């Protein structure tokens, strides 16, 4: 499981929504403002108290290792598991994680300090077997793995059978982009083109655009503009300023630009 950012209260939310701590193996920190990483030292310590043995990987800006290890040292705390820090410094997009199912790339953002978003992409799955066709051609079971990889097969009569006659296309790989905190930044669009779900911060409404420029945040309308330019399938807004009493205003503003908009709220689950 991946965790993106770790502000204060993260552990409370994990427990409230019955998410097992042991499932978290990779934590991605966008930047070193407190609301995005002050919960991390406590979480790292809690993992030890829970008897964690699995490795934990933390990806974040340069300085995150020093910050976390210093706090652990000052509190006379330690870990009984391997803790790996992957410090990021590049101002260009780079792949920071890959396994057999997914890749994670950075999305350079524009904030008051060094900040990255993260783009998660599923890898293309193996093709689905058409069992009826496989049996009809008398395909030996020893060939099934290669068939799922897209290779042609040999029938019981020695005939070469085209892969498309034996398989179905796998589901389209899904993608998710997390972009927070950031000012309006058009040059991120090529990196997230055709993304399935875009989470983009929307700290302010359009009436506070001047404050956005000063604080390097975005409006709901600007987030929607990025979603439209990127041809995203769905936009999730979040990171709202507490000055606003109604979150519905953010959705209304974004929908003047982009149709498929949802509001991020505590405990809400989105499926790709």
From TrEMBL:
Natural source organism: Croceitalea dokdonensis DOKDO 023
NCBIfam families per record: PRK00055.1-3
Protein's UniProt keywords contain Iron: no
UniProt keyword Nucleotide-binding present: no
Protein name: Ribonuclease Z
Role this protein plays: Zinc phosphodiesterase, which displays some tRNA 3'-processing endonuclease activity. Probably involved in tRNA maturation, by removing a 3'-trailer from precursor tRNA.
Binding site for Zn(2+) 2: 35-36, 181, 239
GO MF entries: 3'-tRNA processing endoribonuclease activity; zinc ion binding
Lineage: Bacteria, Pseudomonadati, Bacteroidota, Flavobacteriia, Flavobacteriales
Cofactor(s), by name: Zn(2+)
């Amino acid at each position: 499981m991946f965790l993106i950012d770790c502000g204060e209260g993260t552990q409370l939310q994990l427990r409230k929504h019955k998410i097992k701590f042991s499932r978290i193996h990779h934590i991605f920190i966008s930047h070193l403002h407190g609301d995005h990483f002050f919960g991390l030292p406590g979480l790292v310590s809690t993992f030890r108290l829970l008897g964690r043995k699995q490795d934990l990987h933390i990806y974040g800006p340069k300085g995150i290792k020093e910050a976390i290890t210093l706090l652990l040292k000052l509190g006379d705390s330690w870990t009984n598991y391997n803790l790996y820090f992957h410090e990021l410094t590049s101002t260009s997009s780079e792949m920071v994680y890959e396994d057999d199912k997914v890749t994670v790339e950075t999305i350079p953002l524009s904030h008051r300090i060094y900040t990255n978003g993260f783009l998660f992409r599923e890898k293309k799955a193996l093709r689905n077997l058409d069992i009826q066709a496989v049996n009809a051609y008398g395909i030996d079971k020893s060939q099934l793995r290669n068939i799922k990889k897209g290779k042609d097969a040999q029938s019981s009569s020695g005939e070469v059978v085209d892969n498309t006659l034996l398989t179905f296309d796998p589901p389209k790989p899904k993608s998710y982009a997390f972009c927070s905190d950031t000012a309006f930044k058009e040059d991120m669009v090529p990196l997230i083109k055709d993304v399935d779900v875009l989470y983009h911060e929307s700290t302010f409404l359009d009436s506070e655009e001047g404050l956005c420029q000063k604080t390097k945040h975005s409006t709901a309308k600007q987030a929607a503009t990025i979603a439209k330019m990127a041809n995203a399938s769905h936009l999730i807004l979040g990171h709202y300023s507490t000055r606003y009493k109604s979150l519905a205003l953010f959705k209304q503003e974004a929908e003047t630009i982009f149709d498929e908009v949802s509001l991020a709220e505590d405990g809400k689950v989105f499926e790709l």
